[in-house]
Amino acid sequence: MAIIPDKKVEQVEFCEGHAPVWTAAPPAAIGLTAVQCSAFTTLTTSARKAYNDAQAARLAYHAAITTQNQAIAAAVNNAADLIRFIKSFAEATSNPNAIYGLAQIPPPATPVPATPPGKPANIAVVLEPSGAITLSWDASNSAAGSGAFFNIARRLPGQSAFTPLGGTSGSTSASRRMSFTDATVPTSAAGAGAQYIIQGQRGTMLGTPSDALVVQFGIDGPGLTFTTMSSKGAKMAA
Q: In this predicted model, what pLDDT tens digit does every residue of 99-136 receive, in sequence order?
């Protein structure tokens, strides 16, 4: 076990506690000299002062950082207000870009038309213990924050059209892959297979639907299997 502690404040306190003890022993009785004990006492006094100065500087640093952040925030907020005034003034003139150039701020970006999410890809299927089917996929331009949404439709054996099942929001920073669980697939569809189509949507714009996914599981087969097939010509039930 170490005699001298690891923490700085405890090291200073250790020195402060032992300097007078070793000096009063007397020094010769513990194998030291008066000169050594005097030098140790001087070093201990310097250590305490340096520690106290460092603590005061640390507190002053944090106070200065707080003052700095408040001052910067005030200046930035005021700058934002002034930019709004400049933009409002510029847009009311016949040559807004001249005003923006004079103020040395960029003109507003040209609005880019929104586009629908990309075609769902890298589709994976999981058979849940309850018998439900969970589909997961990824797609380009699928951020939920920009309004991306995905609809899922299913066609069971004997049905001529795909029936909407529901949908789910697009991707987020926490999950780049979207997922949907179908808890209503009937047992009778296990062997013959249930077909699914996933299609992205943003507002009224529809993206390219995924290829139809055929999911089979249970009975006499090898377990859960799924294959894809072209969704071209597939009908969606109303």
A: 999 999 999 988 888 899 999 999 999 988 888 899 99
DSSP 171-227: B-SS-SSEEEEE----TTHHHH-EEEEEEEEETTEE-PPPPEEEEE-STTSSS-EEE
Query: Helices 34-91 & 8-24, crossing angle to 10 degrees?
Result: 160
Nearest C-alpha neighbor of 214 from the set 174, 177, 185: 185
How far does CA 107 lie from the centroid of its chain?
Answer: 30
pTM to 2 decimal places: 0.53
Q: In this structure, what is the dihedral angle of CA atoms 21, 26, 32, 36, given to the nearest 10 degrees?
A: 70
pLDDT for the residue 111? 82
Per-residue pLDDT band for 185 (boundaries 50, 70, 90) equals confident
- 136: part of which helix (H) or strand (E)? strand 133-138
Closest by Cα among 15, 34, 14 to 24: 34
* Residues 182 and 195: beta-carbon distance below 8 Å: no
Is residue 196 classed exposed, middle or buried when 0-12, 13-18 and 19+ CB atoms within 10 A define those classes?
buried
Nearest CA to 151 among 134, 138, 169, 136? Answer: 169
Pairing, β 121-127 against β 212-216: unpaired
Question: CA angle at residue 175 from 117 to 129, to 5 degrees?
Answer: 105
